[in-house]
Structures are given as structure tokens and as C-alpha cells.
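REVIEWER CHECKLIST
Item 1: Sequence provided? yes
Item 2: Single chain? yes
Item 3: Sequence as submitted:
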Amino acid sequence: MCGHNVDLLDVVLRTLRSVEGIIDVWHVEDPDKKTILELEKNANENAGLAIGVQIVNTGATSVLQRRFVVCVNHSPALRHPLRPILILVADEDIVGEEVWEEDTIARFQVDSNALFLGKGFVIFKDKVSSIGDRRLRFEYGPQGFPEIERIQSVCDVVSATISPAVDIYVKRRAKWGTTDPDTGTILIGFNALA
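Item 4: Structure as written out by the authors:
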């Protein structure tokens, strides 16, 4: 069972502030967790209606279930996550995914099964042909955060990207600027070992 430990939160905040690309860190309290969850659900529902595909942020939902939640403001210098943030799925089959590493992009550019939507999202032709009547959905999945996972007494670490509406809300609550297009936000949640 994971428990409460304020000293551990301080260690996590200090660790995050030392990570290259992280500009600032904000501890998200319970009332803000509820607001963020509602805003995220509404933003995804509205965006999904606009494009005709369901959008689900399972990552943010998972983060907000953790005892501790922090949000980081970051620059492009922050390393990319270890797996795609955004995927397109039909049931549980991955039909497409976000790509950002240059070698991965180059590999897919010569793959006859890959079709790019813009520069950073690839659709798998063989998967599209087998969708049938299954509904598609975009999913922002949960990620890890290795710098926090290495801290003793931390467990259940998960990070997630958030919608533009939540990004603005968080930046305002944390008193961060909202006009720099090169800064982003990531939610990180974790529990403490008992």
C-alpha cells in the first residue's frame, strides 16, 4: 500500500527541477485535480466531435488517480518519452502512432505499409484495411517518467500529456506564461511506498 510522505514530494520536486528542459514544477492539489479531469474530458469530447473520432486521455486519468500529482512546464530540451504519446486504435489494435525520433521517421518513410499524416504521425495501411466496422479512437496513453521512477520510496509513476485547454488552465494556476508556443506541460502522478 502506498502512503503519504511530504518529504518524498520535496525530493521529487527537487529532482524534477534538475531535469534538463524542465522550467518549473507545480504541485497539483486535490481541488485542481478534479477541475483538470473535468476540463480534460470536456476538451477531448469536444475535439472528438469536431473530427468525428473519439479522443480519450487514459494517461491523464491515470495520473490524476495518484496520491501526488505535479505538473511540469518544459521547453523543447526535455527528452521525448520512451513510447508514442498519441496512438490511433480500433478496439485494442494500434492503427497509427505518433513518431518523433529521426531514425524512426526515416524507417517509416521507406516502409510501404506506412502512411504519414503530417510529419509526425504514421498510419499503418494493413491495420486500416482490417478495421471493418470497429470504431476508431485517438488515445493519449500513460507514460513513465524515469527520473522519478529511480527515487527510492516512489511507486506507481505515470506521466501524461494534456489538452491545450488544460495546458492553459494549469499555466494560469501555476502563474506560468501562456503565450510561448515552445513551452509545454506534462502531468506526473505517483504514490509513496508505505
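Item 5: Key structural point noted by reviewer: The first helix runs from residue 6 to 17.
Item 6: Recommendation: ____
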